[in-house]
Design brief:
This protein has about 600 residues and is of the alpha/beta class. About 45% of the residues lie in helices and about 10% in strands. α5 runs antiparallel to α6, α5 runs parallel beside α7 and α6 packs antiparallel against α7. β13 and β14 form a beta hairpin. The relative contact order is 0.08. It has three domains: about 170 residues, Alpha Horseshoe (Serine Threonine Protein Phosphatase 5, Tetratricopeptide repeat), CATH 1.25.40; about 170 residues, Rossmann fold; about 160 residues, Rossmann fold (3-Layer(aba) Sandwich), CATH 3.40.50.2300. The longest helix is centred in the middle third of the chain and has 18 residues. The strands form four sheets. Strands 7-6-8-9-10-16-17 form a seven-stranded mixed β-sheet, with helices on both faces.
Length: about 600
């Protein structure tokens, strides 16, 4: 027993082998690092750029493109690299809708709208890549392209249909609502009337709200209308915007301040500049607020731009001018501006608060098409003088008529000094064809039939246009062939601004849009000295433009927030298109009676 115990003790005392070593834990694999949007786009581009075409997976290319398009704004270097990635995608015929949307947006961000439209193409509901996201993105791009083309009515239609797709994207939906409101203001009055008549999906309530707030004379009237509208449309998406719209209604004048006027008061345009200045001065002193500082641009666009810069540095509250188109375009591109009115149109983008005002012939030609559509006259016949000026009128009238679904039957261009003018007009109004029909019937019957040739029956009105001298040469031939039995319209250029019955007796029956102040006594902004506008200046329309420019300049900034507001002026009723910064005019209408223009009672309404 003793020996056994000793053995056990010895065994316990013997050294034991080390236990098996515990293996080190596996290293932790870090989770994927979340990169900020721009580094993520850079990273994805680098990955696909490192691969040859045969190894670059289409989905990786698409992921890189999507990462770039998600940036706001999109940096130009990344944009060019994403464009290169898009060109490496499989060139399927046709391309999948999702790839067309991606390519369209890339072209849009690069400023290539025509290419964007070509890539986007038509919607395809059966395309398997037409997910809700790409359907939405495609519609948004389609709307922007229509806006770029200034097809306001069509763009508004697209945005109405887009809105329900943005329910889960509140920021995007708010931006879409703001765009809808701006497009409502961009429409001409006749187009808004059409919007109220047509059953357009998503338009319900928008037209009523725009029209009602636009007609409110003051804040109390706007509040009263808004309550009634909310009762009629309790769930309308525009309800969330009512507080802002009511706060801006109606557009009010800015506080009194200094106004700088930039006009050519010497040189070839001095007469025009002086007429505009006379109107500005009358309106300014009738208003009686602030100082008016006048600067002579001498008809030099570079001088006009330098004077504009000086006015900004001097702290002018408002700037009116310059007048020449080149100067206006250059001013629009400056980095610093002040609220006010440029006195010509420009295709360049205008910053908020800067607006453009002009009496342009294209707007007058569109007014003719609008009046024909409102009265239901159908398709028209254009008899328009040859030349660059006639080209502008013919194009604007034709496009506006097409928008109303009443494309012109014919746009006849005539040389008003040609010796065969009567024969040519006879052919255009259908006299020749009528004579041929009479002769054909006479031959078939073997009788010597006689009859008065009739004008064509497929037109509802005649648009006769050109300079005043051109129209005076055309009009007698229309009367001679009894074409004046149809409604006849022209542009304001037919009327010099002062009545002369002996000179204009051949213009009887021709209606034209013009400044309402030409046909009534005016008292600008409370001025008690009412007298006919035509007695104010040798260029009465530009005098009226100056009066309105002063009034609109001090409302330029606030009108961006309340584009539904209509401002009644001497040259017409004005409404701001906030998408372009252009003031749009609704003119009055007059018709020649016994050689003198008479204001028509059925003048074009503002809605």
């Amino acid at each position: 027993m003793v020996l056994l115990a000793a053995g056990l003790m010895a065994a316990c005392a013997a050294p034991q082998p080390d236990p098996a070593a515990t293996p080190d834990p596996d290293p932790e694999i870090p989770a994927e690092i979340e990169l900020a949007p721009e580094p993520l786009a850079e990273h994805r581009l680098e990955r696909i750029e490192a691969l040859p075409d045969e190894q670059a997976e289409p989905e990786e290319l698409r992921a890189a493109i999507d990462a770039v398009l998600a940036l706001d704004p999109v940096p130009e270097p990344l944009l060019e690299r994403a464009e290169a990635a898009w060109n490496r995608l499989p060139d399927a015929k046709p391309r999948p809708l999702a790839d067309r949307v991606r390519g369209g947006w890339l072209a849009w961000h690069r400023g290539e709208a025509d290419l964007a439209a070509e890539r986007l193409g038509a919607d395809d509901p059966d395309d398997p890549t037409r997910t809700p996201e790409f359907h939405r993105r495609g519609m948004e791009l389609h709307a922007r392209l229509l806006e770029w083309e200034q097809q306001w009515y069509q763009a508004l239609n697209v945005r109405f249909r887009l809105d329900p797709l943005l329910t889960l994207e509140p920021d995007l939906q708010t931006a879409n609502h703001e765009r809808i409101w701006g497009l409502m203001a961009a429409l001409r009055p006749t187009q808004r009337e059409r919007l109220g008549r047509e059953n357009i999906v998503g338009a319900d309530g928008w037209h009523d709200l725009f029209r009602g707030l636009g007609r409110a004379d003051d804040a109390a009237a706007a509040e009263t209308f808004a309550r009634r509208w909310q009762q009629a449309f309790p769930r309308h998406p525009a309800n969330s915007h009512l507080p802002e719209l009511l706060a801006a209604s109606p557009a009010s004048a800015d506080p009194a301040g200094d106004t700088v006027v930039l006009l050519p008061l010497s040189g070839n345009l001095a007469g025009l500049g002086e007429a505009v200045l006379d109107g500005i001065t009358r309106a300014h002193y009738a208003d009686g607020q602030g100082q008016l500082r006048v600067r002579d641009t001498r008809g030099d666009p570079r001088q006009a731009v330098a004077l504009y810069r000086d006015a900004v540095l001097e702290g002018a509250d408002h700037i009116i001018g310059p007048l020449q188109r080149d100067a206006v375009a250059a001013v629009a591109d400056l980095e610093e501006h002040r609220p006010g009115v440029l006195l010509n149109r420009t295709a360049n983008a205008l910053p908020r608060g800067v607006t453009a005002l002009a009496l342009d012939p294209e707007a007058d030609a569109r007014a003719v098409a609008d009046r024909a559509a409102r009265t239901g006259w159908g398709a028209g016949l254009g008899i328009i003088a040859e030349g660059a000026f006639g080209d502008r009128l013919a194009s604007a009238w034709s496009l506006a008529a097409e928008e109303h679904g009443a494309s012109p039957r014919e746009v006849a261009r005539v040389d008003t000094r040609a010796g065969d003018l009567n024969d040519r007009i006879a052919a255009h109004v259908g006299i020749d064809r009528s004579r041929e029909r009479i002769a054909s019937v006479s031959r078939r019957l073997g009788l010597g039939l006689e009859g008065d040739p009739q004008i064509r029956a497929d037109v509802g009105y005649i648009f006769v246009a050109g300079s005043a001298a051109d129209v005076r040469r055309i009009a007698p031939h229309l009367h001679f062939h009894q074409a004046s039995r149809l409604p006849m319209m022209s542009t304001p250029h037919v009327y010099p601004g002062r009545p002369d019955a002996s000179r204009d007796r051949d213009l009887n029956g021709i209606a034209f849009p013009d400044a309402p102040g030409l046909f009534s006594e005016i008292a600008a902004l409370g001025n008690t000295g009412a007298e006919p506008l035509r007695e104010q200046s040798g260029l009465p329309r530009f005098y009226a433009l100056g009066m309105d420019a002063r009034r609109l300049a001090v409302r330029a900034d606030t009108s961006y927030a309340a584009p539904h507001t209509t401002l009644v002026g001497t040259a017409g009723e004005w409404q701001l298109n906030p998408l372009t910064g252009d003031w749009q005019r609704t003119p009055a209408w007059a018709r020649f009676v016994r050689g003198e223009p008479r204001r028509l009672d059925a003048a074009t309404p503002s809605d």
